[in-house]
Amino acid sequence: MIETTGVVFSPESIVNRQPLSWRGLDAEIVQLSRLEPFEYRLRGPRHLLIAARRGERNDGETLVEGLPRSTRREFNHRLTFVPAGHEFFGWQAPRALYRGCYFYIDPAGPSIDPELRFHEMDLGPRLFFEDVALWVTAEKLTQEIERGDKGDRFYAEALSVVLIAELARLHRGDLGFEQRSRGGLATWQRRAIEEQIEINLSEPLSLVALAASVRLSPRHFARAFKQSFGQPPHRYHLARRVERAKELLGRGYLSVTEIAVSLGFSDTSAFSTTFRRFSGETPRDYRRAIA
After folding, report:
1. Residue 51: beta bridge partners?
2. Whole-structure pTM value
């Protein structure tokens, strides 16, 4: 079943799969066996949720129909949701051996409470997003798959119900956001902008390009962005660069100068000034504090 309706990898020989099925839900752990470029593709009648435990690539792109293409290089512990009928496609030159769990969900599966009306929900696509509750549930299911024949089927089926309920919660949250965001960005616009800023942190921010990508005029976009994010685009961009800098400082293998260059700052002084304005301390002080 998974072999014919799941994600197709090319070449298939570099991927190891560990499948398991429950009522209304099939799942498989996908593990890359060699560091070679590969492609993947899916368009099917079921929803697909991907929980990527490890995802790092030197190059590549991922497309979920309805969202901008992403060239994000690192997506460890990130989730991706592909609604039924949407195309999912990508390729990558991996930097590390990819590992993730793929959940194939029948919208009208027998384990879904009819009162939830899950099959009637117009679920939107999501790419490389975070949600703690959904991740925890997906991780518990992954552990049951890893146990193989020793896994607890009743526990796994109960977790499957929770997984679907979490997806429904996200959908209702999207609707609530749409209703609250009068004058702000729509949910799909916000996701698209967040993704573009994240993958282009080292590049100068272009309001014209961002506005065009979500089909708004620059003036309308600037107002809508501030209402949705609580701050102007350029300040949000700088704040995200500082947050990324904190991640790199915590890893310890890059110097402050190398981090400044990688994030597009003109020099170490400009980087330190910006970092201190947002965090209250210099990059070196921050690194010493967390060490």
Report:
1. 79, 101
2. 0.62
pLDDT digits (tens, 9 = 90+) for 76-123: 999 999 998 899 999 999 999 999 999 999 887 765 666 667 777 778
The candidate with the shortest Cα–Cα distance to 137, out of 117, 157, 114, 153, is: 157
The CA-atom distances, in angstroms, between 58 and each of 9, 36, 94, 130 are 18, 11, 6, 22
| Cα Rg, the chain, nearest whole Å | 21
Q: Can you list the alpha helix ranges (DSSP code H) found in 67-204? A: 132-147, 153-180, 187-199
Query: Contact, 85 vs 125, CB < 8 A?
Result: no
CATH number of 2-180: 2.60.120.10
For the domain 187-290, what is the CATH code?
1.10.10.60
Measured CA to CA, the distance from residue 233 to residue 210 in angstroms comes to 10
Q: Spell out where the chain has E strands.
A: 8-10, 15-22, 25-32, 38-42, 47-54, 57-64, 78-82, 88-94, 99-105, 126-129
Handedness of CA 72, 197, 172, 136 (dihedral sign): positive
